[in-house]
Please model this.
Amino acid sequence: MCGRYAITLPPEAVRSYFAFIDNPNFPPRYNIAPTQPIPVVVADPWTAGGARRFVLMRWGFLPGFVKDPKDFPLIVNARAETLAEKPSFRAALKRRRCLVIADGFYEWRKDPGTGGRRQPAGRPYLVRRASGRPMGFAGLYETWSDPSGGEIDTACIVTTAANRLLRQLHVRMPAILEPDVFAAWLDVDGVEAAGALALVKPAPEEALELVEVGPAVNRVANDDESLQRPVAAPIRTAVSETLF
Model:
């Protein structure tokens, strides 16, 4: 799963990578957590060719049928393998696909004797591209309406099976899409659900690296560049069997 991630690259680099038409100026965020506002990219249905737009949404997907969010579990991740069959996600997979902007995410390695817990007992790792480029996570979104007519845009990250490198930390990982398939994922009119799901696959192992970082990332209130300071050399190959 993905429970924390980061966006630290300059806004102009992010805008160039995702090719959205807006020009937002946003600060680096080193420790993004569920329920916080997150930037996503959507295709604007009202512009020719579906121009890409930068939009803020709440990280925590709410299907339209939910009556009271307090009685519904917080959905920050959605398994790609079951999107087409689950009522919570079927409509969004067909009509409301987005890209979640990121340049790294965190996972926790379970240490012996912690009883299976990863956080805060496990050791945190930053997972990032070896190239330093941004990441575009496959995402879904939904606009939820409360009984009084108020609306909130909500989103979740689509996950897939972890590649061998990531399996050292977890069995799942965010579905990281490459720029050459951004258009297809966002094109809900031209690409049906089955075609969109075919784009979701584990990232190549050589594309990523694992960087062990300090425990300060365990606390949501901490949000500065020191959270990503390495405490060991990056891991770029699967050096052992699954570690959790």
Observations:
- The helical segments are 11-18, 90-95, 182-186, 193-197.
- Residues 5-228 form a domain with the hypothetical protein yedk fold fold (CATH 3.90.1680.10).
